[in-house]
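Design request, tokens follow.
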């Protein structure tokens, strides 16, 4: 509900500000200067220029059912140079606060001069036009005489007649990289046909040097073009990257001083070059982010694993002429943590709806009039995959064509401009949202990680949280279908882990492009999941941050799974009195152990929701997972040959994580009354940017955790 409260608060605040700061009525309505207003004439029309759009605002006319926006090209002296055209229709469902109507007029060549008028209609009966306002629209950002700033994309130089080609994208990207210290372009992978998949890494005065260092800045991510025939967002990304690279305005410097902006202009370069939805094999990449059968999605998921973006937007276009300008949708899959869903919804309904109403854009839920069964729970869709990876995020669709509310957009270039500049507005708002709400975003992420590692609650294989219509008058009149989970796709009692055979884990998979063989082991590694090698197989415990995604790929009930792995259920759920010696595999779930715990060499301990009285000691174990648990006594994990995951544990005593021999131990969100000592681990422990609360000193490899 936080979104609704914020929305109401914002409206009230706006009303208060209007009362306080609005000019006196005599000044606002200079009746003595201009002609007396006619009955029902729109008054107080204003225009404010944005990046590729102009926001018109006016005082509502009592009884109006809608408004028409008229635009006329004019010369410097104000004389018309072309016909007046109705370019927009404002309807009450366009924005959340009908008391202050606004319309973002777009679809013109930026930098040209126009005059606008607005008139109310009562049904189909037009009322008198307002007095005109005129202005010069904002030219594309960047001084044409300043090197770097003067770079332009193919789309810009051809006035939207051509989309930027792959060749031009790479040249523009390299030129930005060369000309700005704030930009590092990194190749995160290659497409099936060998095209580079680039990512802009932007920071001020320079971006952090490594993925690990970027992760510490709580970066945000924009994925600009997954469907090759939906190019509008990509053009916005390229334009935005230029401004971020060179602008010295206070906002840009402030944004880039506080985080790192990651922009992937084209994950699907082959599809873009061929103007096809899928990649060169015909695979829809936005149905592959969990399975990662394709090199493009595999590269992207590895980037998510390494850079840890905390928030993201995924850009698309939608073939619907009657939707709002900007259909959006949060990760809805029911395995996504509630905190991630809520914060994503707040970003959309709390922020985008509110700011859209100020600037004249019309964000709305994806679903849209006549949208059919879209916006559902497939975990293969990046919106859901990212949510299951604890990323606050939204889908963005650009309405693909004009229609009743954008009647001038039979003109192809104008339609393209409206789409691209509506995406640019959204991405800029996304940056501002991240800057202003970083604490809420990172708190939602931390809550999600601690929820997921606790392995509590049912597993849903397919099924969404509902998206309720925003209260009227609202931009949410057509939310997506309910998409409730079916009974046969729910597992009420989650297993502790999944166990894969050698063949399942290392067997060759040929579900990718012809000639490319990969394994489940490689895909699990790309996702970044922890796996324990046991004497007779490979065990993937659910007590880890991507718990909601793991069963969707490894359980027999998974709708689009990799394997039908064996479910491993807890071995101890009740009370255990006295010493506990773990040999082989032990999974403790909501158990109570009074006495010391000793994990033998080669054994595996997975403990969630468990209370230990006495020390927990593991020496040379195959794997140790201690999450959402309490320990009275020291915890000592040394010499582990496989994964170490100690997250959201409360330890009354010291914690030692040392000399572990596999990948980096995960030590996060713990509360420790004693010291936290980490030394001699083959890879230094990490905390996924979720800090530990440690009363004693944090030493050596854990000093900054
Ligand atoms: Zn799409």
């Amino acid at each position: 509900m936080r979104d609704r409260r914020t929305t109401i608060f914002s409206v009230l605040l706006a009303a208060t500000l209007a009362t306080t700061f609005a000019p006196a009525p005599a000044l606002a309505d200079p009746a003595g200067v201009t002609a007396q207003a006619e009955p029902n004439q729109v008054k107080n029309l204003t225009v404010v220029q944005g990046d590729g759009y102009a926001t018109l605002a006016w005082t509502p006319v009592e009884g109006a059912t809608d408004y028409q926006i008229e635009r006329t090209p004019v010369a410097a002296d104000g004389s018309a140079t072309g016909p007046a055209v109705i370019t927009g229709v404002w309807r009450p469902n366009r924005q959340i606060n009908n008391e202050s109507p606004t319309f973002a007029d777009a679809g013109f060549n930026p930098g040209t001069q126009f005059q606008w008028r607005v008139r109310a209609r009562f049904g189909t009966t037009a009322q008198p036009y307002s007095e005109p306002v005129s202005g010069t629209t904002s030219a594309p950002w960047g001084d044409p005489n300043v090197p770097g700033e003067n770079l332009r994309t193919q789309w810009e130089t051809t006035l939207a007649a051509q989309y930027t080609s792959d060749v031009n994208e790479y040249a523009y990207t390299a030129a930005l990289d060369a000309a700005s210290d704030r930009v590092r372009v990194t190749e995160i992978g290659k497409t099936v046909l060998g095209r580079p998949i680039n990512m802009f890494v932007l920071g001020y005065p320079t971006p952090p040097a490594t993925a690990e260092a970027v992760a510490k800045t709580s970066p945000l991510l924009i994925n600009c073009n997954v469907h090759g025939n939906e190019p509008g967002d990509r053009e916005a990304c390229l334009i935005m990257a230029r401004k971020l690279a060179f602008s010295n305005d206070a906002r840009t410097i402030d944004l880039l001083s506080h985080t790192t902006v990651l922009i992937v202009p084209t994950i699907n370069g082959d599809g873009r070059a061929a103007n096809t939805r899928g990649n060169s094999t015909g695979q829809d990449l936005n149905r592959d982010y969990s399975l990662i059968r394709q090199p493009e999605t595999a590269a992207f998921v590895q980037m998510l694993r390494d850079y840890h973006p905390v928030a993201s937007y995924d850009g698309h276009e939608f073939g619907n002429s009657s939707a709002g300008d900007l259909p959006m949708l949060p990760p809805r899959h029911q395995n996504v943590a509630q905190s991630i869903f809520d914060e994503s919804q707040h970003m959309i309904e709390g922020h985008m709806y509110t700011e859209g109403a100020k600037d004249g854009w019309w964000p709305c839920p994806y679903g849209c009039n006549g949208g059919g069964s879209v916006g559902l729970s497939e975990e293969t869709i990046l919106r859901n995959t990212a949510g299951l990876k604890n990323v606050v995020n939204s889908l963005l669709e650009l309405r693909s064509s004009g229609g009743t509310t954008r009647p001038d957009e039979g003109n192809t270039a104008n339609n393209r401009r409206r789409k691209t500049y509506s995406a640019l507005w959204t991405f800029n708002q996304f940056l501002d949202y991240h800057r202003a709400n970083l604490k809420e975003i990172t708190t939602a992420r931390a809550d999600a990680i601690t929820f997921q590692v606790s392995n509590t609650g049912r597993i849903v294989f397919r099924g969404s949280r509902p998206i309720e219509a925003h209260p009227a008058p609202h931009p949410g009149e057509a939310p997506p279908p309910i998409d409730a989970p079916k009974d046969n796709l729910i597992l009420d009692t989650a297993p502790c882990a999944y166990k894969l055979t050698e063949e399942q884990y290392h067997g060759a998979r040929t579900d990718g492009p012809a000639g490319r063989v990969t394994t489940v082991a490689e895909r699990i590694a790309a996702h970044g999941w922890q796996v324990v090698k046991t004497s007779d197989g490979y065990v993937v415990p659910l007590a880890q941050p991507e718990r909601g995604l793991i069963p969707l790929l490894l359980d027999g009930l998974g709708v689009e799974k990799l394997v039908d792995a064996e479910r491993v259920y807890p071995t101890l759920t009740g009370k255990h009195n006295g010493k506990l010696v773990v040999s082989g595999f032990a999974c403790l779930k909501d158990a109570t152990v009074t006495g010391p715990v000793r994990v033998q060499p080669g054994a595996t301990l997975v403990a969630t929701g468990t209370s230990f009285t006495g020390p927990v000691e593991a020496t040379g174990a195959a794997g140790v997972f201690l999450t959402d648990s309490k320990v009275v006594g020291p915890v000592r994990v040394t010499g582990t040959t496989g994964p170490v995951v100690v997250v959201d544990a409360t330890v009354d005593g010291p914690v030692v994580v040392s000399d572990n021999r596999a990948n980096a131990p995960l030590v996060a969100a713990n509360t420790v009354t004693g010291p936290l000592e980490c030394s001699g681990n083959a890879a230094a422990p990490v905390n996924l940017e979720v800090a530990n609360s440690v009363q004693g000193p944090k030493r050596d490899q854990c000093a900054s955790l």
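Comment from the thread starter after seeing the answer: thanks! Residues 1-33 have pLDDT under 50 and may be disordered.
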